[in-house]
Request: fold
Amino acid sequence: MSNELNNNSSNTATPPKFRDKELELGQCFLAYVNFREPLEHQGKNRPIVIFRDMEEDKLYAFPVTSQIDTPFNKRYGYKVKDLDVAGFSKESVIQCHSSNLKEIKPENIKRQLGNLSERDVTGLLIKSLQVRQMEKAQERRLSQGNELER
Reply:
């Protein structure tokens, strides 16, 4: 069994890099982010926090905003605690809702701002799980409502 694990781990692709550094969860960057997927030229430079989906071997970005008081961001965002380490100049929220999650290409990354602190990485992971649970519950309610209409 350990041979199977070793064989599977050797099949992993080379991680994406920015200026010869591997991209890892919790790194904060300024990057060009598309607003709508089919329209590649409609976007802007935004602060992001990246993570890599190892199964799909894709790089994703959580957008970061300073609009911390909107109901949506209060419910679905993670408020960064250690702003200076992350490289954010204002109070900031990492948008965790799946509708905000964007696939990002390493060539769209402009510069590194900083890194999330350990407590912010942990907080982001916890908030992301909570948001996924809320989304799943909402999906179940919607599907149950659709079944009742039939």
Remarks:
- The radius of gyration is 17 Å.
- The first helix runs from residue 2 to 9.
- Strands lie at 17-18, 21-22, 27-36, 39-53, 58-65, 77-79, 93-95, 102-103, 109-115.
- The helical segments are 2-9, 71-76, 83-86, 118-149.
